Amino acid sequence: MPTFSASDGTRLAYRVTGDGPPLLCLPGGPTDARYLGDLGGLSAHRRLVLLDPRGTGGSAVPQDPSSYRSDRQVEDVEALRAHLGLPLIDLLAHSGGTNTAVQYAARHPHRLRRLALIGPSTRAVGIPVTGDVRREVAGLRAHEPWFPTAFAALAALTSGAGTPADAEATTPFFYGRWDAGARDHHAAGRPANDEAVALFGAEDAFTPPATRAALAAFPSPVLLLTGEYDVNSPPRPTGEVAALFPDATVSVQPAAGHYPWLDDPAGFTATTAAFLA
User: Fold this and answer.
1) Of the CATH numbers 3.30.470.20, 3.40.50.1820, 3.90.1150.10, 3.10.20.740, which one belongs to the domain with range 3-126+192-276?
2) Is the per-residue pLDDT at 34 higher than 90?
3) pLDDT > 90? residue 54
4) How far apart are CA 64 and CA 41, in angstroms?
5) Within 10 A of 80 (CB to CB), how many other CB atoms are there?
6) What is the predicted pLDDT for the residue at 200?
7) Which listed residue, of 59, 80, 104, 211, carries a Cα 20 to 30 Å from 52's Cα?
8) Which of 151, 195, 200 has the alpha carbon at shortest distance from 172?
9) What is the CB-side half-sphere exposure of residue 50 using CA atoms within 13 A?
10) pLDDT for 121 beyond 90
11) For the CA atoms of 21, 40, 168, 236, what is the dihedral angle to 10 degrees?
């Protein structure tokens, strides 16, 4: 795997797949970027540069654990841009990685040509996702055979009384189809570095008022794509995030969960590739 040096000297790794202009990709988790695959065939349109965040996959564990914070990892993206010799980048981020991406947009707005936020998190901009909203989206799956157990676990989690077992029981809600492929994807994509996960959103990692103010002047187009069934990134709060940008488009992919490139690869690729063109 190719590597480069972050500003603090940590060696970071990335994968490259596909053809076309480069597209920098940030995974969620934080976990390594393998679970993104080729983003449902997007690699046929763009050369995907998939970053393993510090402490995951092929990237080294940093000497300073506080550098796991989302705001600190913004400069890892900037170091990758410089390493690739790109004056401007197109950036795609998924889930928790969108927190780093929007902070990058706030801090380095003139380095971005296009920004695609997939299943976006709202933490960096301070928009709450209520339990009522999550349960409302989950209710769309009431016809599924696994629904009663998963919904009871979701209710426990959103009431503040949930357990790790409840979190695991809600997994089917994250996929448009809870089948063998989804089970395999879930098993392979679990974060392996608990410290990286715990410190990603540590105190002061997010400064929503400052980030929102900066995004109000963001000059480039933004795509926010989420799934109709995504309880992690429901369509309603995703629309609220979009409203923070001057030029943003919201796309809700029908019958998709938190990994829309798995649920309808052709639809996901068509929408995303058209935006990035």
Assistant:
1) 3.40.50.1820
2) yes
3) yes
4) 37
5) 20
6) 97
7) 211
8) 151
9) 24
10) yes
11) 80
Token code pair at residue 99: 């927190």
Give Cα 34 to chain centroid, integer Å: 13
Categorize the per-residue pLDDT at 170 as very low, low, confident or very high, splitting at 50, 70 and 90.
very high
Q: Are 253 and 277 in contact (CB under 8 A)?
A: no
Given a contact cutoff of 8 angstroms between Cβ atoms, the answer to whether 256 and 228 are in contact is yes
Please say whether the dihedral angle defined by the alpha carbons of residues 116, 119, 124 and 129, taken in this order, is positive or negative.
positive
| Joined tokens for residue 245 | 């940008």
Residue environment code for 199-223, b if the CB has 16+ CB neighbours within 10 A, otherwise e: bbbeeebbbeeebbebbeebebbbb
Question: Stretch 29-39: mean pLDDT, rounded?
Answer: 96
**How much is the mean pLDDT over the chain?**
97
Place of tokens 């809700």: 252
Tokens found for residue 130: 């209520």
Copy the structure tokens of residue 140: 């769309």
Q: Are strands 11-17 and 3-5 parallel, antiparallel or unpaired?
A: antiparallel
Q: For residue 90, is pLDDT > 90?
A: yes
User: What secondary structure, in 3-state letters, does 186-210 show?
Assistant: HHHCCCCCHHHHHHHCCCCCCCHHH
The DSSP element (H or E) to which 224 belongs, if any, is strand 222-227
Residue 189 has pLDDT above 90, yes or no: no
Nearest to 12, CA basis, from 54, 48, 69, 66: 54
Amino acid at 161: A
Sheet strand arrangement including 112-118: 3-5, 11-17, 47-51, 22-26, 89-94, 112-118, 222-227, 248-253
70 — phi, psi (to 5°)? -55, -45
Instruction: Express as a percent the part of the chain with pLDDT over 90.
Output: 97
- What's the token pair of residue 203? 């105190």
Q: Which residues contact 171 (CB under 8 A, 6 or more apart)?
A: 150, 178, 186
